[in-house]
Structures are given as C-alpha cells and as structure tokens.
Amino acid sequence: MNPLSDLVVQDPWKIIQNGFSNENNKKYESLCAIGNGHMGQRATFEEDFSGATHSGSYMAGIYYPDKTRVGWWKNGYPEYFAKVINSTNWIGLSIKLNDQKIDLAQAKIESFERTLDMQTGLLTRSFVATLPEGEKISVKAKRYCSAVDREIGVVEYELTIIEGEGKIQIKPFLDGDVMNEDSNYELKFWEETKKQIGNSEAYLEMKTKKLDFYFGSAMKFSIIKNKQELSFKGNEQSKKKYAAVVVKNKFEQGDIFKIQKLVANCTSRDCDATTLEEKCHDALAKAHMHGFEKLEADHIAKWAATWKDCDIVIEGDVAAQQAIRFNIFQLYQTYTGHDPRLNIGPKGFTGEKYGGSTYWDTEAYCLPFYMATTSQDVARTLLIYRHKHLQKAIENAEKLGFKNGAALYPMVTMNGEECHNEWEITFEEIHRNGAIAYAIFNYVKHTEDSVYLAEYGFEVLVGIARFWAQRVNWSEAKKQYVMLGVTGPNEYENNVNNNWYSNYLAAWCLRYTLEVAEFLQANHSNEFVTLCGKLNFDLTESKDKWMHISDNMHYPKMENSDVYLQQEGYLDKENITCADLPLSERPLNQKWSWDRILRSPFIKQADVLQGIYFFEDQFSQDELKANFDFYEPRTVHESSLSPCIHSVLASKLGYNEKAYGLFLRTSRLDLDDYNREVHEGLHITSMAGTWIALVQGFGGMRVENNMLTFRPHVPKEWTSFEFSIVFRGVRVSIKCRENGVELKSNAPISIQVYNDKFDLDGSNSIVVKTE
Amino acid sequence: MNPLSDLVVQDPWKIIQNGFSNENNKKYESLCAIGNGHMGQRATFEEDFSGATHSGSYMAGIYYPDKTRVGWWKNGYPEYFAKVINSTNWIGLSIKLNDQKIDLAQAKIESFERTLDMQTGLLTRSFVATLPEGEKISVKAKRYCSAVDREIGVVEYELTIIEGEGKIQIKPFLDGDVMNEDSNYELKFWEETKKQIGNSEAYLEMKTKKLDFYFGSAMKFSIIKNKQELSFKGNEQSKKKYAAVVVKNKFEQGDIFKIQKLVANCTSRDCDATTLEEKCHDALAKAHMHGFEKLEADHIAKWAATWKDCDIVIEGDVAAQQAIRFNIFQLYQTYTGHDPRLNIGPKGFTGEKYGGSTYWDTEAYCLPFYMATTSQDVARTLLIYRHKHLQKAIENAEKLGFKNGAALYPMVTMNGEECHNEWEITFEEIHRNGAIAYAIFNYVKHTEDSVYLAEYGFEVLVGIARFWAQRVNWSEAKKQYVMLGVTGPNEYENNVNNNWYSNYLAAWCLRYTLEVAEFLQANHSNEFVTLCGKLNFDLTESKDKWMHISDNMHYPKMENSDVYLQQEGYLDKENITCADLPLSERPLNQKWSWDRILRSPFIKQADVLQGIYFFEDQFSQDELKANFDFYEPRTVHESSLSPCIHSVLASKLGYNEKAYGLFLRTSRLDLDDYNREVHEGLHITSMAGTWIALVQGFGGMRVENNMLTFRPHVPKEWTSFEFSIVFRGVRVSIKCRENGVELKSNAPISIQVYNDKFDLDGSNSIVVKTE
Hints:
homodimer; alpha+beta; 10-stranded antiparallel sheet
C-alpha cells in the first residue's frame, strides 16, 4: 500500500477522518489521540467495536517492570524492561438496540467523521449507520481529557433514532480487564482491588502487579432523552475487573438519547493508595458541580492560552500549517511540566512502543522546544529530572564496572534505573550521556541561569565527565585515546570503534565541565567549595587528566577531505548511496535483515551531522558542506529524529529545497505515515524536531553574542511564517516574509537579525527588510 | 565458594558422590546423568525430594518452538527459539511410611552415596536415613536407560526397614506435569492426551503444544517384599497429566521392599501418534518378557563393546583416566548415530541451556571423535544431517538477503531452521558455515570417501561457497575484499570487521569447493554434470569470481610480525593479558558487564588459533609460535571449546606443561566445575575436544601423506596412555610410553610415526623406540 494513498484531509486546525475504513482505523486512533499530561488515550470508540482496533488508555508515570530475562542473558542487563501499560478503559459505553450492539464493524455505515480539533482539544465523532436488523441511527460523540482539571475525562454521546423502535439498553462502564498489545505470553498487568456500583455511578480501582501502582476511576453519568433528564433504575453489572450500570428503556423513531459521562482518574502516584477512592470522588464531585458547560469552556480556554504562546502561523501552505500545529499540539498534550517526576515518552499517550520511558530525545530535541515556547521553569524541571536520577546513573555505571562517581544515564528510564535490554543500545549507545551535558550547556546559553549550574548542573556534569574519562582507553597503536564498542545516534551501526560523534561529544564534555568548574570557582565560590567536597572533585587533577584526553582524542577522518568518518572503517563499506536503493527496499528496517543493514553504509539518522549541528560554531561552512554532502545521500532517515537536523543544516547551507523537503518529511511524518507505522502510535518526541527545523532552520534562530538571533528564510511554498520565542523572560515574536522580517517583544530586549543588532522596546514592532 | 573445594572422588571408572549435600545436589544430578541417545535424564531421585533439585528428563528430538518475539525485534530474526523440553518424569516412586514421605530434605541422613558406573552405564544410589518420626531406613536404588532397547528405562529400588513399623504406601508414578527451568512466564509445554491406570501398570501420553510431538510412557512394576513377590490391589491415583498406582501395606523392622519399575518411552517421532500406545506396550511387554536380569546384562554388554573400541587407558594418573572416560562416556550416552535426524546438543540430556540443538560444535569437535572411534557411517550420518538441511540453509540465507542458492547454515537448529535469537550470533557468527565445509574436507581426508562428495558434499560446499562470495564486499579504501560485521569463534567480540579466522575460512572454502569441483569433474564426471545442472553451477565462471576473492582477501596482521590480528583494530585495545586479571574477576562472563568484556582484549576461545589449528599445514612453526605466544596469554578460555585447541597447539610447540594443564582443564571442566555452572548440565560437545587434545595433542594423531600418523609425547605425570583409531576401516591401537610407542592393527596398514613409515600386518604389534 502506498502510504500516501490515504492522505489526511488538510485543514489548518483539524485532523479529520472522513468516511470509515476498518483498515485505517488504528491509524486514526493514533492521529486523533488526546491527552493532558496526566493521562491520555488513543481515539478509540466509546461504544463496542469488533473491528481492527488498538485499545490504549494510559496514565502518566504508571508502568510495569516486565522481565528482561527472556532468552539470553548478559551481565549488566537491567532488572526489567519498563512498559507503559494500557489501563482501565474509562470511556466505555455499550449500547444495544433490540439486543444488537452498536458496533460499526457489524453495521452498514452511511457517513462517518472523526475529528480532532487542535484549537480546542476536543475529539468528536459522528456517524450514521444501520444495524443488522434495520435500526438506523445517528451518533454524535465528543470527548476530552480536561487540560484544567487533569483527572477529569468527559464523554458526551448523542444517539438519534432515525428508524426503528423497541428496547434500548445503555451501559456506561469502566473496564480494567485490559491487556497491552505488546504483552508477552498474554500477561495481564492489572488486578482489581476495589469496586462499587451505584444507580448512575461506579468506582473501579485497579492495582498493577509488581510495583503496586493503584489506579482509581470514578464515573457518573446521566441520560437525557429528548431533552429531558431520564430517571432510571440502573442495574449493577459486575464481573472481574469490570464495573457497569445497565439502564433499560424503549426507543422509537426520532428519539434522541444523550449520555453524559464524567470520569475522574487518579493514581497512587498522586495520593496515598488508601485515600484514592476519596480523591476520585472529590474530583468527580467538583467536576460535577462545575457542570459540563463550564468544564468544556475552561478546557477550551486553557488551550487558547497555550496556543497564544506557542502557535506558529504559516501563510500559503495548509499542509505545513496543519503539520506544525499537530506537532506542537501533541507535545503539549503529552508533557506540560506540571509534574517534575514525569518526562516525555517517545509515543506519549498514543501507543506502547518504546515503553513510554525517557530517552535522550528529551534533552536533544524536546528541551529546546519547551525552553523557547514557555516559562523556562519547564526546561529547568526537565533538567532537574536528570539531577534527581544522578545517584541511579552512578549505580548504573557501577554495574558496568565504572568507579569513583562516574555516571551513565540510562538509555531508557522511568525512575532513573536503566530499563532497556539490548546490549548494543543499553551498554553502548552512551552518547546519550553527552546529550544531557549538552542540554545543560544549551539551557544555560539560552537562559543564563548559572544558579542552576551551582545547584544542579555541575554535579551532573562531573558524573558524566568522569564516565567519559574512564570509558576511553589509550591506544598504543594510535598513540591516542580511543573509544571502543559504542553505538552512535545512527543505530544502524552497533558496537563500532571511535564513533566520531561520541568521541567529539566526550572530549567536549570534559572541556565544558572544566569550564563550568572554573566559572563556578570564579562566580559561585562558596557553592563550588561545597561541591568539590561533596563530589570529591579536584579541579587541578581533573584538568590535567581530562585535558590530556580531550587534546589527544582520536577522530577518524577521510584523507585529504573535511569529512569526519562516522566510525573507524566506515570507508570499507560499499560505496553506494540512497540513490542506489530501489524504493521497494525502503524502509530498510522493514525490508532488510539486520545484518545487511549493519553492513551497509546507510545511515538511520544524523550522526556525524548531529555533532556538527550541536557544535556548529566549531566548524566552518566548508566543513559543514563537505560532511552534509557526504552523509545526506547516505542517510535513509528511518528515525523520526533525523530529517529535522538535516533540515536545519540544509537551511544553513542554503539548500532551501532540501531543507523544505526534509521539514515536510519530519512535520508530516505521522500525518502522512512515512514509516508505515502510525497505527502503533505517534512519534511524540521527534515532533519537537519539527519545531526545531522550522524555528532554527527557516527562522535561523540561535543564541549568538549572548543575544537571541534570527536568520530567516521563507520557503518558496510559503507566503510568511510567524512564531514567538521566550528568551530570558521576554517573549519575542517574529513574522518572516520573503522581503522582510517583523519583530516585536513584550519587554525591552536587544536581538540580532542576520548580523545586525536591533533594540525592541517591548511594544512597537520593527521591520527588517531583506533583499 | 571455591569450585575446587568439593572435588569429585577420583576413580578410574566411577563418578562417586559420598555424603549428601543439598548445595551440591544439582551438580551431581548433572555429573551422574544417564542417557542412551534416545532419551536421558539428570540423576535426580526416584523418591520425593523437597530440596534443591533440577528435574530434567529429555527425549531426543522433542522440542518446543518458544517465542523469540520478546523484547525488541529485528528483521530476519528466526520464528522461534527451540527449547529442549523437560518431559514426563518416568522414574518417580513416592513412598510414605506412616504418612511421612521418604524425602531426604526432611530426613536425618546417616550415609549417602550416588555413583555413576561408566563401565556398566548404571546409576546407583544408597543411603541410610531416619525420617522425622523416627523410622530408620536403608535404600539402594539402581537405574539405567537401556543401551540396547533404547525405549526402555529400568528402576530398581530396595528399601530396608532398619527401625520402625506401621503402614507403608508405595506409589510408582508417571508425572507429565513438569516444567522447564528456563520456562518463560512459567509456560508449560505439555498437554495430556491419554491415560490408563491398571493394578500394576499405567500409561500416560502427553503432547507438546504447537508442534504436537506425542510422548507415551508405559510403566509396569512389581514389589518384592522379603524376597516374595507381593500380591496387591493397586489403587489408581489420577490427576491432570499424572498417573500413579498406590499400593498399601504394612512394614516392620527388617522388612525389605524391592520395587522394580520398567518403563517404555516412545515418541511420535518414531511412529504414528495413533499407534504410540501400542508401541509403548509392545516395547514394555518385550522388556518384561526378557526380565530384569537379561535387560541389565544386555545393557552392560553393550557398554563393554562400546568401551572396547573407544576406551583410552592412562597409566599413572587417575584424575586424567577418570576424566577422559567421563568425556567419552557422556558422548556415547548422548549420540550414537542410530537416528540420522538427531544430532548432538551442547548439554545432551543433562540440562536445558543452549536449547539442546545442533551447533557448529558437531562439525568442529564431535565429528573427529566419532570419525576415529567408530564406524565411519556415524560421521557420514552427521554430515548427511547437514545435507538434509541444505534447502533450509538456502532459505535462511534468503531471509537475510542472499541469493542464487547461497546457503547459510543456522547457528542453532533442530530441523534445519535457525532457532537462535541474538543478532550478533544468529546473523553474524557465520564462521559456522565454514566449519561445515571444513568437516567435509576433514572427513574425506580421514576416510577417502569421495563418493560422499558426489552424493552430498559438493552440493553443501557450493551453497556455502556462494554464501561467502556474496558476504564479502570490495573495499575501495583497501582495494581488497573485506568481510564486515561478523562474530568470530571468540564471542567476546561482536560485529567486528575482518575477523581473520572468518576471512581465512571463507577464502579457503572458495578454493576447496573449486578443488572438489575439479576433482569430481575428473573422477565422477557423470555425477558432476548432473550436479552442475541441478545447482546451476558453472565452474569457469565460479572459478574466476571465487579465485579473485580468495586471492584478494584482506587479512589483518600485526606490522613486522607473524601475528594475524583477530580482527581489524584489535591493537587499539588495552595492552593487558590474563596475568593482569585478578582471580576475583574471573570468570569474566560472570563478573564483568558485557560492554566491558567486548571492549577488553580478552578472548573467550580460540579464534585466530582455531584457524591455525584447522589449517596447520599452511603455517610454519614460527607463525604458530608467534600467534600462540600472543593469543594464549589473552585467552580466558571461558568457552568449553577453547582449552582443547590450545592444548593441541601447545603440544605441537613442545609446550608440554601448558598442553597438559589445558588438557586437564578441558577434561575435568565439568568434574571440577571450573566455570561454576555444572549444576545446569554438562558440556557435552566440548567433551569431544578433550578427546582431540589427547589424541591429536599428546598422541600427535594426524592424517599426513595420506597415512594415519602419530607423533606422541607422554605428559610427565603419566606412565603411558593407550587408544585406538579407526582409519579407513582399519582399527589401529597405539600405546605410548616415555621411551617408545607400541602399535597394532586389526588389518594390514601403513602408518607414519613421527616422520617414519611403518607397515602393520594386522596381527603383530610393533614397537617404535624414542629417545
């Protein structure tokens, strides 16, 4: 199937599915997923559905430590592999007309629409269908996870009888008897601990196996029949891990049943498990008191406020407009910074792949987005998250044989412990450690928050630097330091020697940590003395050793060229490029065996180029060009984290068409399902890369000379684009047109556009003309 | 715990455990395991035992295709991971005295002995113990898996009442409700399909999940009380997957109960499942007719005949004598060549690790043993096993992207399909393919069976050669062929480039296949024409291409030295040797994390040296010495397949003490539990390596100048050693003493001793004096 054969409708604010197809159902369940940072879910149906579906309703921070001891065991493997787990289905609403379930897989569908409105954060659905025995109905459903009262989920379901009459049964339910799609041996992760069912309400409390997370859902519903609240005697229906109330009534042509279901979802992460039921009921009562109208109005208002700060407006290109909003919207559905124990899972609340844990994606991709679109506290919170995990990172390094406070942050984590179990990743994809150091550097550059360095950052940097200093070894053969057995960002190579990016990052990290030490010594001398004692850190001794490593690191390079080699021996590979690859063999990770991928020269994602991107001021434009021209033709971009970096670099090189193509690819990765896997969930963390490609690429946003800087160019497909950046407490808005740039700020600030400095007065806009 | 603190009693023919220890129980369950090629089991107790035990009873060729889709999936992964599975416990005999079970974990043990008699193939056990309520008993148990009637298992159990009186309950049973130790998520592999219980007999039939292997066990027992056959009314005791007969009686001091249990174990591998019960009953009836005495006498006679051919007698060193017999005995318990569909699992019938499937161990280690100790049909059968799997090997290669009949034999297999799931092994440890080609070469050299080449061997060779020709690629940088992304025999390196051994083997394989082609063209021209047609093989074209590869292969080498580098970049590793490793860090695979092992220079098992061993006539003694002196100090020998090869090479270099030390290590690997894992089972396939170390190392046995050749040296710890070799249908016996060698054959033959030729007349022995 051509992935582009079923294109998403282009709309500046909405994701619309027009017409139903069983084959595409899971795809739209992903695309229309909703969430509020506390909880979220795929856009599955409220009513029964026996067709192709991937039920998934997830609670932030709730996971299951599944076995890693399956198959072969290697020493140093983590104790468990963390899985984000499918939790109680709280949207459920089963309806029978004359004993037939409403089930679109069994009905004749006349019309169908599913819409995610990104402006309001509302998921709606409507359809007209005929049941097997002839009853014809029309349904309008709406739901959301409140962006204000995060525990609250709201479902409104309006059923109109177009034809038919007889008995109707309406059964709102809570179903905790759910399983993960990726469950091994069909293991279920939840046990029931409590249940209560009333006339129009129910409470179901579940507990996870092993870690004893409790999850309570309290629901309350009402039924309005033909605009009159129905009074009914609800019958309890209870089975294991399941609570429902059955309401029976009659229906005839023209009847309209409106079911309003309110649910409060709380977990023992937020309160003592013994008070969970109370907490759910309190939240439910409060929401019920507010009423459906106010709940919805508050929710919409909150989204409006969020959009005010983070929206990017593109004129002249609806596809790009829709895409960038989709990316921003999903990021803010997934992570809001309200809970410092949370982080950003690669699939957010939209699927199970990658376990929902924290990856280096956060530091390398997401941090710049949050740092520039909202209060800097959010970025700081993300960094402090890693500081909280420092002790675990030290223990993780110790498990692998490192000593003296060396820290290796996990590749994947829920609580600081490593929970990924591929040796080539877990033990070897250690550049993640450098990305965390880089994020600190990046944050401080953007915010000038040097207090963070004294409070948190330096400790993290020292742990990371100590790791690198132990991870390299002296090669007698080369008379240089080498780093053996690593996996770079390009995971299509494993266990390579002297990955240029890792070596470069490690050497930089050693130098930067020393710089920070000297900065703190000079500027936060008291704290520095305390830190040195706490960390047993000796600046002189560390400097001797670390500078020796940094000055004598081996960097593989192509002879007589500016091209850095991705790793030792890269040039022994077949000298072919993506142009030699038939389309039928793409994506390689689906078409080729793993060994073939490993042997091939093809690159999954930016690797050398990731380093040049991070440290761009250390490379000339010629060097950038040489490396881009060599690597881009060999890069298959089969990681969602890849095209954005290439796009930024292409922009910098003036490869504008390339930059735009790569931007489109990253921004519409899920909408256009490039990798044919959107049914599994969305690529949440890489969505920040889309933002980067636009803001840093087309917008040319940097921090240079200690000033916010822009070097915009407008893709020729666009009329203009407009975004705003929070920089050191000031919000700067910029609108870029082909012939000029308009800037404004909410407080006085000096900024740089191209190479000139401008002073914004905090109220009036200025216009910078371009050729 | 020091593994040597609990040394096995030294005895030339027996493995004896004197005194019971719960801690060591599993170890002796492994060491005293019994088998007959058709079935086998760990030396667990017949009666109940609530202490530390690893129940394991296995049927050759019965396996379960467990999931490989656990955790992360890589394209090309095999569909399943094959597991040898623990099957119906047919030895079971539960005895209660006054309602207390005989259970050594609950009893006070006065004396205990467990003995495996390797000369007779009998496992016996005796103990005196007092039960919690004071009854004192003495037990003598004996059992074996008949070496003649392979379906038949025999248990004799004699219980003497030393003190006490009251009620006794004797319950012989068949228990199919068993699990694997390595079961994931406690999955059970067997379902019950049939059961019948009579007065003194029972039948239990089980079926495996997924593959529907049926396994029937029919038992019949009698009880002799004080030398009189007891007549009793047996009560059926049946529960799921379990069949037992309960006999009740009284006991008083001095009573002797002798229980004789006869079991026939057949599987649907050997007959239609519908006739399985009949087959079991027939086998049981036949055995019953023979009676216990004849059964045992036949069994012992069969072992005596086996020993006559394969025994090695060492004078002056009981530890070595015991060890070599232990190794030979276990090999002949595991594989006898009677069933061409079977092969040699790494743990035989003694444990579950490695899945009981076929590895390259068979070709590289076991084939030489069987080839030289028994009829050449057995070795031929082992080779034909791979020919039967050729189509699957081609399919396996196709899955990985190879074409045109290239064959990649699986790393691990039950039926020709790959069933191992670590990418670095499954996809990359491809030297196994070469070991199969080498085995063909080795077999033909030993037997001169060129008909085999025409019938089977050439097809296999062409498939393998085609694989190598596609697996290499031309490096523009080196202007040579390279082989990227492999794992050599040293599995402490993964995904390396230009593993010297693999490159050498591949190039040799291309040349050898061409040689065989030319030989067949000249000597079996009709068959050759047919084969060329069948295989679509063009000799000229293949020769051009393959010789170009073979002539231009890259072999990494140390500058200004004869040392071949294990792989590209080996010299970048830390320059340390095993002497730098504290004992507390050994074995590395238990003490070090995987990444540390990978980065280190330490070598698990012979790699470059494996190549020099295989192709010794292509390397000078100086080259051998340079490589041995470089690699042996870096080799930790944490594979059971390693010390034997080093021992042979040390012998060749005149490093006699080293050779002897390595021999002891390989020969007593399990007896002295060097790797602290014998409780998991024995290292069956590497036992052939022990034989190699002795026969090729100390005996200096080779085929040279088309003659069987010996260059013996006697370890100074020994007075003499004596063994015999089957060579082209003639059995040659040799006894080696410090001052000379005595040789005899059972038919006229010319042989070479050191560098001189001698003619044996087939009856008289000759003596060759040495300095």
